[in-house]
Amino acid sequence: MSQTWSLHPQLMQDTVNIGDLPLSRVAVIKDANYPWLLLVPRRPNVSDLIDLSEIEQAQLTTEINRVAVALKAITKADKLNIAALGNVVPQLHVHIIARRKTDAAWPRPVWGVVPPLDHDPQELDAFIAALRRRVWLA
Amino acid sequence: MSQTWSLHPQLMQDTVNIGDLPLSRVAVIKDANYPWLLLVPRRPNVSDLIDLSEIEQAQLTTEINRVAVALKAITKADKLNIAALGNVVPQLHVHIIARRKTDAAWPRPVWGVVPPLDHDPQELDAFIAALRRRVWLA
After folding, report:
1. Shortest CA distance to B11 belongs to which of B34, B33, B35, B29?
2. What domains can be seen in chain B, in order of their start residue?
3. Which helix (H) or strand (E) segment is A131 a member of?
4. Which alpha helices (H) appear in B15-120, and where do they start and end?
5. Entry pTM
6. Residues with Cβ < 8 Å from A41, sequence gap 6 or more?
């Protein structure tokens, strides 16, 4: 049991950092098949949503809404998928995924359907810049 | 666009009703592979979490916590999976699934891995009774 929070090594490897909200780290999953974000509450030893206090849960809900609204506006997605699973990586993390009816996994959930696809670096930079403007500056 | 809420016919077919919290209908998915609940906010024309008002989102978070705490206590699950996907049924519904390291899909997400398994009626009655005690009477 650690007393300080740090991003789980597997999540570190799988994501590109965008920035911090009051509770959560925000990151992009390295998979160009879908616009796919992760919110990771910066609290040590938390695995399930119910391990957060009620105040932290309310703050996480606010941050999920803020990021999801931005992601939908930027991508014009058909549907959002929002999920806290964590069967493989036990550190609490919330997936926010913009789904399109034409994407590689539709209508299935994205996990394990097709191998991750590398991002085009310029497209990824533009996506992160657009998110930063909407989430932190709006 | 309907002005009154009713449970989507597919969700009606796939679930057994448990009862209503202030915002959400609570139901069990008819699949004995996993202790699997559904929360469906009783608001018409809502597909994504971000379609709810901020007050409704906060209420939904409270109800998710209440049901998830009860489900974990009853099942002694290893992990909770909480997800709003809705790619197939567009009416907003939140899955709350008790996962065990020995279950049929572990560590994968449950969707589409193994066919649904019929409940034993007495076990289902006992499960629903235990949930009602913890969620509504606690």
Report:
1. B29
2. 9-136 (3.30.428.10)
3. helix A121-136
4. 54-75
5. 0.97
6. A23, A24, A52, A56, A60, A92
Chain A environment of B106 (Cβ under 8 Å): 87
Q: By the CB < 8 Å criterion, does A49 face chain B?
A: yes
* Residue B62 backbone dihedrals phi, psi, to 5 degrees: -60, -40
Q: For residue B24, what are the β-bridge partners?
A: B41
Bond before A107 cis per omega within 30 degrees: yes
Q: Is the pLDDT of residue B138 over 70?
A: no
Interhelix angle B121-136/B54-75, nearest 10 degrees: 130
Report yes or no: A115 and A128 within 8 Å, Cβ to Cβ.
no
> Do residues A79 and B47 lie in contact, with contact meaning Cβ atoms separated by under 8 Å?
yes
For residue B49, the chain A residues in CB contact (below 8 A) are 64-65, 68, 80, 82
pLDDT tens by residue, A12-67: 999 999 999 999 999 999 999 999 999 999 999 999 999 999 999 999 999 999 99
Query: Using CA atoms, how far apart are residues B36 and B82, in angstroms rounded to an integer?
Result: 10
Closest Cβ opposite residue B68 in set A50, A82, A85? A50
ipTM of the complex: 0.96
Read off the tokens for B20. Answer: 């209503």
Torsion of CA B60, A93, B113, B49, to 10 degrees: 30
Q: Is the dihedral of CA B36, B71, A68, A95 positive or negative?
A: negative
